[in-house]
Target: DsbA family protein
Amino acid sequence: MIYVFDAYCGWCYGFGPQVAELDRDPGVSIRVLPGSLFSGARSGPIGDYPHIPAANARISAATGVRFGPAYQALLADGQVSMDSDDAARGLLALQAVAGHGRDVELARAMQEAFYLDGLSLSEAETYRRIAQRLGLPADDVEAAYAHPRTHAAARDRQAQVAALGVAAYPTLLARTPAGLAQVGNPTATADEIRAALRDQ
Model:
């Protein structure tokens, strides 16, 4: 399966626990690709997006996730910049060091760093903290985050997402005999997604 998410997407944060449950199923392999929700002209201070607090309330009500006090303070301040390109680079840096099989765990750790701990996903120090939490070599992750090869790889992954025709996040794609098919929606449970997969 392919999970297309954006680390700055609140609905992806809400959907994350269900994806994590699926990822634990025997025989399931989920590859995570980064989106471009706040890329280019759309990147900028979180305060430029006044709809976010109300959206967060809807996400909490629909999925049960909570937004931490540190994130709430960051949101109230309004100054931190959301840049999906930096977050994509961070994901690729973590993936490069962690190796295969931990994509969902890495994506979740990034979203918890932002939505619980209020950390910027444009700062190398954030990825050091994530690495330490997950038992990865922090120096290697920081070096990968800064490396031009990681920049290029992140752009390549975002281009793959565009080529798949994905324009909304989160999007979960399953491989079927007819090709890739979207399964579930941001409020779907893991059981509902399993049922949809059986119908493919």
